[in-house]
Structure formats: structure tokens, C-alpha cells
Fold this sequence. Notes:
Residues 182-358 form the Uroporphyrinogen decarboxylase (URO-D) domain. With 451 residues, the chain is of the alpha/beta class. It contains 18 helices and 8 strands.
Amino acid sequence: MSDVKELQQERIGIFNDVHDNKVPKRVPVNLSLSFEATAQFAGIDIAAAQWKPSLASEAAEKVCQTLYSDSCPTGGSLRFPSFYEILKSQSFIMGSNGFIQHPEVVGMDPEDYDYLIENPYDCLLERVIPRQYKALNLNDPISMAISLTKSYLAYQADMGEAMGNVIPLVQKYGYYPGNPGGFAEAPFDYLADQLRSFKGINMDIRRIPDKVAAACDALYPILLKKGMPSVITKYSRVTYPLHMPTFMREKDFEKLWWPSFKRLCDTYASMGVGNQLWCEDNWTRYIDYLYELPTNTVLIFEYGDMKQIKEKLGKKHIITGLFPLALLKAGTKQQCIDKAKEMLDILAPGGKYIFSLDKIVISINEREMENLSAVAEYVRDNGKYSNAGETAGMEFNKEDYKTDMGRAFESKYYSTWEQYKNMNNRTSDIGKDKLQGLEERLFQYFTSLLI
């Protein structure tokens, strides 16, 4: 076996041990630069790379040669300008610096609540998406069809081209390859982000809380379907960026945000699918709620007291994040290493810990990269366990959780195979995977336009 293959097996082993309730050989290092930061680090024009992702191929290689990580330290992007621009997006717009900006926008009026609650997927396609994407003008169907087709083709092409930068590097450098997973949002966040907006949802909480709760329940089966991995393994995880809770009063969080999200996490857990949460901002006042989530939930913290987090959550959940990105910019190399040592001393004992930063790196210069590299190598060399293989905290069992699929997902814009066969009874069953696969891909694309 080659050295690279051996290294990859070691990396797979330490990540799997963390998820298998074992103390690993050493703390896994999970660092990743955004697509924009990767291009910037190599001196490539960010806007140009956004339009032609393969331009960042050599940049991605340079990052791998510079920065230590057990996972690939560079990745693709959820947002390329091609499909947004074709659709005349008002919610995602490229700025003059090449970064995609997200202004405050409203896609759903208060008067739309009843229709959303009654037919949520129909409402998203008929009312919300056309408001956010002006090229999808229902009064100009031919132009709309052409724009939609071009945007989907651009989406597929750019995502594939970006991943073409990354996949070969995973094998070349022996990185941890990850596992099949999914991406979703909490139902309340989905309602807030691009349907009602930050301002709009805060008015709704006070004026029409019952409709907000009903809308979260209506969106629940859509988000559950969206996040479901195409293949489930014991290491599959659904990732959520969590946006609104730290801006809410706890009584509103408890009544309106938490119930549908907790159901979502429990249902995935009942199917053997893990949950991974980006706890944006400071979740200290919600730490007891986090404890109630399924065992082995991966919690990526931005802020918080490390000792409190470890004490309250460290035996049940997998802790990561918290290393301050700001320190890479403002601190010396030794200050950064000292912080990494402090984190290892507090968070590593007992396992269930993966080293990572508190935020995604969207911009980095040479000095910051030197600091980050010093930190990564320090953790690699000093995050070793003397009790590898011992049991780490509580064990996950999917039988501990209840499946709640919510109401059936139904829409005139989505056909199951049975419905398709009823309309086309001469279609061969051989075509099932192809036709149902197209249905699923379009569902994923439409729902992604609102994340």
C-alpha cells in the first residue's frame, strides 16, 4: 500500500472513530477554504473564477501543498453567478469584488400564508420563486422556459466543473473522502430567509404566530425530503446552517423555531442519518436545547464558552468549530498556536472532538495562511491520544428516535413513479430510475434556489 493510501486510511479511521464513539488515534483536523478564498490565495481574479470554476484548479492544488488538513482544504461553492444571473435573481447578486451578495428581500407576502400552508410546494413554485427570480415571468412562458432551462444547465455545469477541481486532490493527497450527505434548513429559517425576510418574519411572530407555526409544519416535509441523503450509510449526515434563533426571544424560539427542527433531527436519526449543525452566532442560551438533539449530532460553534460547551455537551455530541478566524488576522503565529493548545486541553479529552475554525474562510492572505498552517500542524502533532480505542461518551442508537414524516409530500408539479405510470401505462419500468431521477434533481434545484 502506498504512503498516500496508508495516510488516507488513517484519516478515514480517525474520523470514523469520532462518529463511532471511540477515542481516535489523534484529533482530526478539518479545515477548508471557500472557493473564493482559494482563488484569492493564488492571485486569481475571483469574478473570473466564479464564471469558469476550472480556473481555480491550480489554486486548489496550491492550497493543498500549503495547508495541512485531514479533509480536503478547498472546496466548491453553492453559489455561482451563472444560474443566478440567467434567472435575474434579486436575492443573490455578484458584487464588484466577485463575491455573491445576499440583500434583504421578500419572496412571500403575508396574504400568501394560507396558500403556503395548504399547498406549500405549489406556492413556492408559483409565487415565491418567480418573485425572487424575475426571468421566471409567468406571463411570458416561452422566455421563462428558456431561462429556466439555461439556468439549470449552467448550475449542473458549474457544480460539476468545481468538483472536478477537488475530487482528484482527495485521492492525490489521501484526504478523508467524506460520506454521502444532505443539505437542508430548519423550516423556520427557510420561511424567514427568502420567503418573509428578516424584517417580515419578526412582524409575523407578533401579529400571526399561529400561521408561522402552521407554515413551519407545511414546509417540514419539503425540508425533510430536501436533506435526505441519496444513499444512507452509518456516517451519513444532513448539514444545516442555523440562522434565526439568536435573534429571537426564547419563548418565540421554543414555540415557533424549535418544534419542527427537533422533529426533523429526530426523524433523520430514526433512519440512521446523523445531523450536523452550523450554530451561527452565540448559542449559549440554547445549550440545553442542543443537548436534547440526537446523540452524536455534530455541533459547529461560532462563539461560546469552550469549558461550558465541553461540560454540557461533550459526552453526548461531537464538538467542532470555535477557533477564532479573527485571531489568524490579528494575532501572531505564537498567539494562534497558544489558542490551539488551549482548545486541545479543553475540548480534546474524552474524544468526540474535531478541530476546525469558527467560520468559513472567505478571504485569506499570506500571513494569515502562515498562521493557519502553523495551527493545523500543531494540532496534527500534538492532538494525539494515549487511550485510543476506548469508548467516547454516549452511543447513538437509531431505535431511540421516532420517525415523523409529517403530511405526505404532494404537488401537481411533482409526479411519483406510480402517478407517471398511470398517465403513461406503456412506459417501461426500466425508465423508472431515469424519470424519477429527473423529478428529484428538479426538486433539489428549485428548493435550493430559496436557500
